[in-house]
Design a protein that fits this description.
By secondary structure, the protein is an all-alpha fold. It has one domain (12-473): Amino acid/polyamine transporter I (Up-down Bundle). The chain has helices at 12-23, 29-33, 39-64, 72-80, 82-112, 118-125, 128-147, 153-181, 205-208, 210-213, 230-259, 270-281, 287-322, 337-351, 360-392, 408-427, 440-463, 480-483. α3 crosses α15, α5 runs antiparallel to α6 (118-125) and α5 crosses α17 (440-463). The two termini are 38 Å apart.
Length: 504
Amino acid sequence: MANIGKSVKLGVFTLAIMNVTAVVSLRGLPAEAEYGVSSAFYYLFAALVFLIPTALVAAELAAMFQDKQGGVFRWVGEAFGKKAGFLAIWLQWIESTIWYPTVLTFGAVAIAFIGMDHTGDMLLASNRFYTLAVVLFIYWLATFISLKGLGWVGKVAKIGGLVGTIIPAGLLVILAIVYLLMGGKSQMDFSGNFLPDFTNFDNLVLAASIFLFYAGMEMGGIHVKDINNPSKNYPKAVFIGSAITVLIFVLGTFALGIIIPQKDINLTQSLLVGFDNYFNFIKASWLSPIIAIALAFGVLAGVLTWVAGPSKGIFAVGRAGYLPPFFQKTNKIGVQKNILYLQGGAVTLLSLLFVIMPSVQSFYQIMSQLTVVLYLIMYMLMFSAAIYLRYNMKKTNRPFRIGNKGNGLMWFIGGLGFCGSLLAFVLSFIPPSQISVGSNAVWFSVLIIGALIVVIAPFIIYSSRKPSWTNSDSQFEPFHWEETTPNTPTSSPANESNETSPGK
């Protein structure tokens, strides 16, 4: 996305659409179609307890530290110290690394459906070796392109978001309406219960993944100063964007449920199968390869944009003394090459799980759940930091503030987001009853051991820091508690009261 000058102000609807583009992805619709009408409850519930709190809290934090770099590292570090801040940005980076195989799995399935042989396309899409080859090829291609510079990727991302997400979402809903008007039989029972059966906890794990659908709304917080009267108009943009996002997800999920029986829903293939079935019904099968190309392009454009994106944040923090010099090296045009290579190695190892899991679908689900678990830890840190900073930095200017007076509304919004994240975090460990994931031992091992390794790693790196790790060119601003006098009671978080620089 092109940089916007300070004199340019975004309209409410413009910012709302930017938030929608950043969040919405169609690849998760089949997961929620499993739940029929009750899927709408999950979408609305997650929007109220996660999507809206995330956007509002991130907006306040982003506005507070608009002139200081670090992102979530800054937000959490100002509240709880450098260790917690490093954990937060580490999780944000590693979560995106684990996300790549899952989103590229969907891309590989889309590419498989470019052919006109429906049966053959489905067989190819379910072949784990084909999927593995496509995931690795596309990911490393995107990495090498990133190393050449990403000046043109913004335009590709814009086109990919429109062609690969917004247009297909609208088309899917229109096809469902046409199908019903022409006498098509709905496979979804709309007389079912809106409220789900809360007694079957093993059925809730797929619903927990809906929180990942909404992840990323915190990125919109960086634009809080680019809108007139942010205290009034930013919440408007958040609620409009959230409403559009929920509508796309709810109607898109219903559209899939209308054309595909619940027992036949497949997490990786059903979106393409749904389009294929609709096109067959209206005698326009020739459109199937076109929509498959569009969806694949949307996925690949998004991945290309994100390959280097999250790594830039941890790269900036690393140069301040948090990563060894090896990971601070760049190529001739300033791209963080060694971090990208490390990221690529991790993606390759994760992708090799294809040969262990019983199916492509089971791999897709377990990687999605691990991503959710890690990302939610970061979000819980963010919500906690926002509440804590209301007391620890109560005199700091907040260009955007949740609630005009007092901290009650922040406690409510931040607490709601924290509790919603905690609930989804717990549910993410429950094996889904709808999908064969092999033995429960494999499921729990991957999630628990994987999460532990990822969470422990940044603390090991942090404790191994040396003064020589700090790059002389780094201009990372100190935390507020490093700038205050030592005698001030709140000069630093209790757990790091003696820290004065990343290298000590």
